[in-house]
Design goal:
Distance between the termini: 38 Å
Number of strands: 23
Strand content: over 45%
Number of domains: 1
Number of helices: 6
Radius of gyration: 24 Å
Structural class: mainly beta
CATH topology: Porin
CATH architecture: Beta Barrel
Order of helices and strands: HEEEEHEEHEEEEEHEEEHHEEEEEEEEE
Oligomer: single chain
């Protein structure tokens, strides 16, 4: 098991470091008719099996989303074919402040569920990662256009960024109760153990370029907080590269609820009109983690001189020969300063809450139609999304789903999923964006925004018995 933990943290760290290159962690899994994970986001939704058991690989998930890097905004086209990159077109397509990239990774380490009369009890232990990075338009435009694009006191480069990166374990107890033959309610309280957090709030860093001398200065306003259960001595900003000490991770770290503890809850209700139709409403991931032993950095300075190292890096960008480590070090040293971090007060971070309303109509087992409206929390705002789906069960062992999801912030996508039942053994794989897995030429696709996101969820779970309808 210890190797699984280390592998998880390595993967989380890698994807976390990719946030400058690509929330919503997928719902296609909940659409498979007979899969025992269809109550993942709403504990009131019924499970057909009397007993559910999974260990280690019952639910493995990865997703990556971005709100602003669009395929159609990266290229110039002739007759529908991309002929050249257009950096200015890309920069102008970005929102002034509201651009974000989100990554998620999770694994169910253990799960067991059992039905007792009208009550279904579901215990699960999950290890989760989510990383959210947001940036202003000028944060990228400064490197692509150069500082000559931002001349004078009235035309600074808004160099604002932010990040919220979390690794935590979750111990949940799901309870579903049949109030009547038509109404079911569910609740899943969760005890959370924070493993690591990095919180960056930039309330405004502006870089000014003198129109005569081209000297660059910066007004800095950035706040950084960090906390971890790892045995690592974090003293300076440049040491965040060594934030995770993989050699020190152990089972006690993932179940240490004395520090970096938190609480969460999922709850919902399901109403069945008849054997063909029903609706449900649910709230997922309402909660927080309180981080202790925090390290902080608050930098509020005016007229900070930016030296030549940053200018060299801009030339590297223009020549497509960017030295990212040097750039990273230059930004810290020149703009935010590699100052010492100090012990700060305890602080809280909230989970990425999601609200869902779902309705379905099942004409027959091979023809079930579902609509899901959801609001998910990203960058201090609730973002809307709508999913329309078809699901079907064939030959008693094969289940299939296909879906279409529309979202203003992560584009349009077509999802698909399949599960196969071999007696008590259930194997499944789903994605909310099947196009990302194909070899289709993006230039011929109308839904080019589907390349803004990717996710996959797969697993192996055991079930016993069927609940009579």
């Amino acid at each position: 098991m210890k190797r699984i933990y280390r592998l998880f943290v390595i993967v989380a760290l890698l994807f976390g470091s990719m946030t400058a290159k690509a929330q919503n962690d997928g719902i296609s899994m909940t659409l498979l008719p007979h899969l025992s994970y269809n109550n993942y986001y709403n504990p009131s939704i019924p499970i057909e099996s009397k007993v559910v058991f999974g260990l280690g690989i019952s639910n493995l998930h990865f997703s990556i989303y971005n709100s602003s890097v669009k395929y159609n905004n990266l290229y110039n086209f002739e007759n529908g074919v991309p002929v050249s990159l257009d950096a200015n077109k890309f920069i102008n397509s970005l929102d002034e402040h509201d651009n974000f990239i989100n990554t998620n990774f999770s694994i169910d380490l253990a799960r067991v569920g059992m039905k007792f009369g009208k009550l279904f009890v579901d215990l699960d232990w999950r290890l989760r990662y989510n990383g959210e990075f947001h940036y202003s338009r000028d944060f990228l435009g400064f490197f692509i256009n150069g500082n000559g694009h931002y001349l004078g006191q009235d035309n600074p480069a808004d160099f604002s960024i932010g990040a919220d990166v979390n690794i935590f374990s979750e111990l949940g107890v799901g309870l579903r109760y049949d109030v009547t033959d038509k109404l079911s309610v569910g609740i899943r309280p969760k005890l959370l153990c924070g493993v690591a957090n990095l919180l960056v709030n930039d309330d405004g860093t502006y870089i000014y370029t003198d129109p005569d001398t081209y000297e660059m200065t910066a007004d800095v306003n950035i706040n950084i907080k960090a906390a971890t259960v790892f045995d690592v001595d974090l003293n300076r900003m440049s040491e965040f590269n060594d934030y995770l000490n993989l050699d020190s991770i152990g089972l006690d770290d993932l179940l240490n609820f004395e520090e970096n503890y938190g609480f969460g809850i999922d709850f919902g209700a399901t109403y069945t009109f008849n054997k063909h139709a029903g609706v449900s409403v649910g709230v997922y991931d309402l909660g927080y983690i309180k981080w202790t032993e925090a390290k902080e950095k608050h930098n509020h300075k005016d007229n900070v001189v930016v030296n030549d190292a940053l200018i060299d890096d801009i030339n590297d960008v223009l020549n497509m020969n960017l030295d990212l480590p040097s750039l990273y070090e230059g930004l810290i040293e020149d703009i935010w300063d590699d100052d010492s971090l100090y012990h700060g007060e305890d602080y809280k971070t909230t989970l990425k809450t999601r609200i869902m309303l779902q309705g379905y109509y099942e004409l027959m087992p091979i023809a079930r139609f579902t609509a899901i409206g959801q609001m998910y929390y990203v960058k201090d705002k609730f973002r809307p999304a709508l999913t329309l789906a078809y699901s079907g069960s064939f030959f008693r062992f094969l289940n299939f789903t296909a879906s279409y999801t529309a979202s203003k912030y992560v584009g349009n996508s077509i999802g698909a999923g399949v599960s196969i039942n071999f007696g008590p053994l259930n194997i499944y794989a789903v994605t909310d964006n099947i196009m990302i897995l194909t070899k289709m030429d993006a230039s011929t696709m109308e839904l080019a925004t589907s390349y803004d996101s990717a996710n996959v969820r797969l697993g192996l779970v055991f079930t016993l018995g069927k609940v009579k309808k």
